[in-house]
Amino acid sequence: MEELKNKVFILGLDGGTWKILDPLLQKGLMPNLKKMVEEGTKGTLRSTVPPLTPPAWTSFQTGVNPGKHGIFDFLGFDPTKKKTYVVNSNSIPLKTIWDIASNSGKKVITVNVPLTYPPKREPNRITIGCMLSPKENVDIVWPKEIFEKYIKRSGYKILGAYSTGSLKDSAIEAIINEATEVERARIEVSRRLMADYPWDLFMLQIQSTDHVQHFFSHYLDPDSPDFGSHKYALVSKFYQELDEEVGKLVQSLDENVTVIIASDHGFHYFKKYVNINPLLRTQGFLEESESLEVNVIEKCIKFLRRNKILMWSAKIFLSTSIQLKILAAVNNVNAKDWFRAKVFMPRGGIFASIFINDKVCLQSIQKKLLNY
Q1: pLDDT per residue over 64-101, tens digit each?
Q2: How many helices (H) and strands (E) would you count in the chain?
Q3: Phi then psi for 278, rounded to 5 degrees?
Q4: Residues 281 and 137 in one domain
Q5: C-alpha 43: how far from its chain's center?
Q6: Is the dihedral of CA 96, 100, 106, 107 positive or negative?
Q7: Can you say whether residue 353 is alpha, beta or left, with left for phi > 0 and alpha for psi between -120 and 50 degrees?
Q8: What angle do CA 40, 41, 44 make, to 5 degrees?
């Protein structure tokens, strides 16, 4: 009797949340996902602390919380070298599910899974890197021939060239169309890999769900004051197209494949944004920088933020990885002043990552921040 060869296909929806997906299912806009839910099961899981893409997907891959794998943000911080850096696969200190499976002789393929760049050059592995890859070239894949055969002339993009310079219908449609084409190409490459190579464990991660929601979650969330049927219809087209492409992919799988759909964190529109470093400064924990070098860089950043055309151009033409490297470089200049402070936060507007140089003031900091 021939041995049953079970396979597992994992679809990652970055930022996927039932708060947005359930209404789409109820309206009949995502029939394929609805069918999978009805034939299987679903639930709402608690994300990591902090609920960000790098720590959450790393916990998914390693089975441990951020306190154990050490990934808390897109940027890491090395207190010995006093430098920040962009996290990648080399930042993960533990074996991942991909390592364990491939080392056990299973064939593993991952497409766009966060923190799989640079790809591990191991047998039984095919890897196409993630959003933190610098650009679409031969270095983001393993084995190398995958790039020439599947990426180079396929229209594959790590991310779309998104700009939110306008909220006109035409601008929204342009972003939705770009996101749709990015994921359509990614799914098609995945389909070809599935057909051409043997595999036991395959994961495809969809990043554009997160990006679309960063731009337009206030149009999708019924609790948002900006919610309205017209904008909802424009943005929901992305989910309709995604559902159609995912449906085709899942329907191509044989009956011995278990399908798992997972998300790293949820989503919610926000009304206020708190920059932690100025707050720490007003509470007397962080002093103003006297460094000419720091002040010049900060003035340049403020100029870019005021000049929307330049800021949008930077977002369009610079990859996420390059943008983060620039931010890390700015942080590394600031580090000269941070280490003279009692407490500091390398990325003042993001979750967690508050570094304390003076542990005596820890309770005072907690009290002041909680009562702010």
Answers
A1: 999 999 999 888 877 777 777 889 999 999 999 999 99
A2: 14, 10
A3: -60, -35
A4: no
A5: 21
A6: positive
A7: left
A8: 150
Q: Does 244 share its domain with 307?
A: no
Identify the DSSP state of 7: E
pLDDT for res 316: 47
C-beta separation of 115 from 94 below 8 A: no
Calpha distance 212→172 (Å, rounded)? 10
Cis omega before residue 119 (within 30°)? no
125 and 183 share a domain? yes
120-166 pLDDT tens trace? 999 999 999 999 898 889 999 999 999 999 999 899 998 876 655 55
Residue for token pair 């930022």: 15
Residue of 205, 217, 214 whose CA lies nearest to 163: 214
Q: Enter the tokens of residue 220.
A: 């999708």
**CA count, 13 A, side-chain hemisphere, 192:** 13
Query: Is there a contact between 125 and 119 (Cβ–Cβ < 8 Å)?
Result: yes
Q: pTM (2 decimals)?
A: 0.85
Q: What is the CATH number of the domain that holds 203?
A: 3.40.720.10
Span 197-234, pLDDT tens digits:
999 999 999 999 999 998 899 899 888 888 889 999 99
- Please state, in angstroms and rounded to a whole number, the distance separating the CA atoms of residues 263 and 265: 6
| In a shared domain, residues 209 and 108 | yes
Strands 125-128 and 108-111: parallel
pLDDT tens digits, one per residue of 283-321: 777 665 544 344 444 555 555 556 554 554 555 445 555
Query: Which distant-in-sequence residues (6+ apart) come within 8 Å of 109 by Cβ?
Result: 125, 126, 127, 193, 194, 197, 199, 201, 202, 203
